[in-house]
Amino acid sequence: TDNSGCKGKSQVKVNVITPPGNEIPTVDAGEDLVVVLPNNEADLTGIALDQDGSIIKITWTQIEGPSEAIIQSPDELETKVSNLIVGTYTFELEASDNGGLKNKDQVNVK
User: Cα dist. 76→27, 80, 95, 110 in Å?
Assistant: First the structure.
């Protein structure tokens, strides 16, 4: 109603939709490797992809092994591990996306 008593109305339609869901990143730590002494190092090459955003963090960690290996670049997809002795090592690659989701994969080095 305005100041002269006239009435009017209008309608606005509002559609509320659910945003597309955040998809978990795809992570591949690569194929298992065999190291033959006297060589005591290996190159790890991982893959991390996020179809609906971006990867914001990469982390390589040692899960198992007969000794503590040295991971040269734990925050890079490609890194070198050294200080290896006879036995089986398991390394894990974890990736986090910009939506807060994480995924991981493991690789063995013998």
Answer: 13, 10, 10, 22
**More confident call, 41 vs 37:** 41
Q: Is pLDDT of 108 > 80?
A: yes
Chain centroid offset of residue 74 CA: 13
Which pTM does this prediction carry?
0.80
Instruction: Give CA separation, 11 vs 8, 14, 17, in Å.
Output: 11, 10, 19
DSSP secondary-structure letter at 33?
B
Which pLDDT score is estimated for 15?
Answer: 72
| Residues linked to residue 62 through DSSP beta bridges, in sequence order | 91
